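From the pipeline queue, job 12 of 40. The input is one protein chain; the requested action is below.

Action: predict structure.
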Amino acid sequence: MSLFAELKRRNVFRVGIAYAIAAWIILQVTDVVGEIMQLPEWGGKLILLMLAAGLPLALIFAWAFELTPEGIKRDKDVDRSESITPQTGKKLNNTILILMALAIVYLLVDKFSGNRPDSVSTPAAEVAQDAAQLETESAPDSAPAISRQSIAVLPFDNRSPRAEDEYFAEGIHDDLLTNLSRIGALKVISRTSVLRYRDTEQPIPEIARELGVATVMEGAVQRSGNQVRINVQLIDAQTDEHLWAEIFDRELTAENLFAIQSEISEAIAGALKATLSPEEERRVNELPTQDLAAYDAFLRGRQLMTTRNSEKLERAIQEFKTAVTLDPQFALAWVGMADSYALLSDYGSLPQSEGRQQQKKAVQRALEIDPGLGEAHASMGGVYHFLGQHAAADAAYRKAIELNPNYASAYQWYALRLSQNPLRIDEQLEMIRKAAELDPGSPIIQLNLGMAYLNKGQVDAATRQLERLRELYPDFSRTYLAHAYIQAFFLGRLDQAIESIWLSQRKDRGSLLNLGAEAWFYRQLGDAQAVERILEEMQALNPEHPDTVNAALDVSFYFGGDAAAREALDWATPRLAHLPRYDTDIGHRRLMLGDVTGAREAYLKAEPRWQQPEAWTELLSRKYQDACVVAWVFERTNDLDLGVRLRREATRYYTEYLPGLIDHLDVHLPELCHLANGEPEKAIQNLATQLEHGHLTDWGHWHRLPLFDPIREDPRYQTMLQQRDESLKEQRNRVAMMAQDGST
């Protein structure tokens, strides 16, 4: 008999197969149990070594011995006519089948039980997770499983011979993302988050894990003369295998470019089994413009707009103007112009009223051309928000999300709108978290997430988030500005706030927002010379900007005496009273100067609905800090009943609603209602809490109101003022030392 036949007769092969399967199962169980029991790292290696050593012993045993009814005997001692190796072989076959079944069950459980590392772990995601952990003071919830219908489109390579064609490749990439974002069944990561993977050497599976997607698309664009080549490939992130790939060689026309993008979008939807509604299919296949030159200008404008740099925003507006001049029906270009004007009023020296007016004109034109453009509705939401038309803003943002469910900016801007209402803080967090999910690498979205935690009074969570943001995005100036806000308002560290503002200014020297904040911090410290110096810088940038006007008003109001304050207020009122950010403050300043009648007129000009009790519920959600002051004025200007009712409603808002929604209620000025209610003891207690928590800002502003007259001579109040002044004096000296050391 041959050796092979003899090995088969003695069941050596069967024993080897059964041993190998059993060893594999033991190793898998060891891996799970070892993690639970926290076995040392060498423990698993020792078991593997023992199993490997046992295989040849098992094979030798199978060769040399046989199982008989009388027990185990040496093979040479068993008569062949009495051998039961065939029956033993059948038993081994059954054993092998059972072991294989166990192995298959284990594999299926491992595949579908969710034990795979599906949770997203990116630097930006870690920021949000850390903040959430501080917020809940417990372990964060596990991340949801990654949807198979999720995709990240990596930046396209520019394979054109001209480096200036880089913007063209970026534009094609951006437009494809815009097209895909309109497909509601897909989760599409925003452009901001994928840009950091340009020229990356990271493996596709690793990128996908960081972004929380199941598929990744790579592509390249080559433009040569009147021809364009675009090649793309869709990759399964789990297996790193290609799901679909295509090369498009076409004549360079706008129609061909958009046709290619539509084909790619539909192919991706098909590969990911995402069903398009008739409206989505129409949106994916529509032609934004047929003018290639207009499209070029649009692409340049959009790349400039994303920088958030004041100088480049001005250039972006000119590019968008070129685009709509060449093609007046180019709706997306009108939206680009609208958003650039809004951003320039935030980041540059353009007055907000002018920027929002230009934004409104441009976005209205876009909606006339294409009423179903989600980006246009989101932009219009910003206009309504600025104008104080909050119901209209909510409706516009919801419409934008409905039309473009992957448009991260719509969720972000809606969250900013909701941030004004403490009763809707949970909705705000939901919206900004959705924006962060779609665009985890966006610093402004992650910053707004931090500020949402701050709105809840969770200072530690917000501070930790900003610290991580500074590490991840060191050139993003808004992080330093937000950090300054926390230091000043919540921690009473105006010296550190000014240091943060200096860092912010190094990143963007042309920002009036930074200069206005610095002037405000110095005003808190009582440094008139510093405020006047900063005011000169602001006037050089734009003397008519509202922030500049307000800084000039502060100089006279806080450092010039009552006569200078009245003169400056008369000058500033027509420049500020029509702006929601400043209109109510005009009334406060009138009241501080003893003009109760003028204060009433200013309050009602800013918000006529103070005289309409049916509107108070909505008003209190945004202006609860003003309500008791307005009520106090009503009671002293022949509206006693209205004032009493408003004061009671405002007090109820403070006592019944806010405590369950936000921490650090003392920073929201409940003492104004205590004083209006004739409760000086409660006011003193709240001021003591503010002093203890370091909430020192704007005492010099609010405490000038006549509501504080009943406690001005109280020794406890005088002591608190002295303690605050001493703290501010120490900080003023530290700022002077920092400036002398060259920290500025």
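Job complete. Residues 600 and 633 are 6 Å apart (CA to CA).
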